[in-house]
Design goal:
The protein is of the alpha+beta class. It has helices at about 1-20, 45-50, 100-110, 135-140, 195-205, 220-225, 250-260, 260-270, 285, 300-305, 320-335, 365-375, 390-400, and strands at about 30-35, 55, 65, 70-75, 80-85, 115-120, 125-130, 160-165, 170-175, 185-190, 210, 225-240, 275, 315, 340-345, 355-360, 405-415, 420, 435-440. It is built from 13 helices and 19 strands. Helix 7 runs antiparallel to helix 10.
Length: about 450
Amino acid sequence: MLRQVAISCLLATMALPAAARTRPHYGGTLRVEIEGDPWQRPGGLARRLMLDGLTRMEADGVAHPALAVSWKPENQDHRWTFRLRSDVHFHDDAPLTAAAVVTALNAACGATCPWSAIHAIGSSIIFTGDSPMPNLPALLAGDEYLIANDPGGNIGTGPFQLNGFNNAVLTLSANDNCWQGRPFVDAIEIHVHRSIRDQWLDLSVGRADLVEVPAEQLRKAHEQRLTVLQSPPVLLLSLSVSCSGVLGNPDLRAAIALAVDRGALSNVIFQKQGEVTASLLPSALTGYSFLFPTERDLNKSHEKHGGLTPPPLTLAAEDGGTMQLAAQRLALNLHEAGFNVRVVAAGGAQPADLALRTLPLASNQPRAALESILRGAGLQTPVPEQPPAGLLQVERNFLDAHTLIPLLYLPRAYAVGGRVRDLRLSTDGAPLLAEASLQDAP
């Protein structure tokens, strides 16, 4: 009996170091590499690390408290009162006040805000709307409504604060006084404008801890045995169509929608990742996505523009990489339908007739997700509470105008190095770096 107890104690002692290794460590610098801009809207990595919203979305699809601890609707959702969390400070030690929140939100969205007016009363923020705002708590969790205390959006209340930006490296340090608690790592370095090839090389030799995996390279990442974190389909790849000029003709916009070949985009450009869609919301969220036909119909496309030869059109896409390839493929589709389309870089001086863009799925709550996508597409219309059949009709009414043509729903993915622990993705596929730790931290 004594021998069994001794063996048990020895095994428990041997197990202690292994258990300790699984516990989060404080300290160390997490090295991240990205292709784009850490400040971009929506989805900029630095914004999520430095700024908080009034609410935040969790996996249950419900808005949870963040800088606001509670909220209450009144007057049939025309008025909302959000009560602010106390004893929160910005990175510059200025206190978080209702007045500061109002200033930040007015600067963030201006005339496109979901509300008509916003006021600070004591420690509360009052939102009022000409129309009901049933989805306001979920919308306020979105990237565009994060709270900053400066016009540049650099000073927030988040778990990390800005240290500097030198030689294409953005350095953030842990906010020791963060209202959520101090993050585990001491600092994060974000190396910007790094090609995917260079990112993967740096990960392989230990110079990076987290790198991007574009959807079209997921298969290759698995073949190379990278440790990949992948979200469900959360990015809607879509074609935005102008409704002015020659494309003010709804038949021409319908002809464009019928000419796109989603299958070729999925199979050739994006290597069968994500899901082909002609609806605004993914099938997992609604169950009715199959009711929107995704097949190409060149004959009907020709019928829609009646044999007319439209003037040359421009199609804007991000310069270089997969988006340009996808744009070229779409231009070929439209050429076969009788359109002359020239692909140009996004952000040019002249607005393009067509634009290839991605819209994030900001919520896993169908009603709030649909309203967020509609707002991203420029339609400032609230989506009222209604059954799935009602949401389906809202989608149909919008898509029938053919000003936004859904193409694919794509996942977001990242590859992580061996020393990273406890990293997971948010509901919109962003890495939750404030929760991560490093195994070799001192």
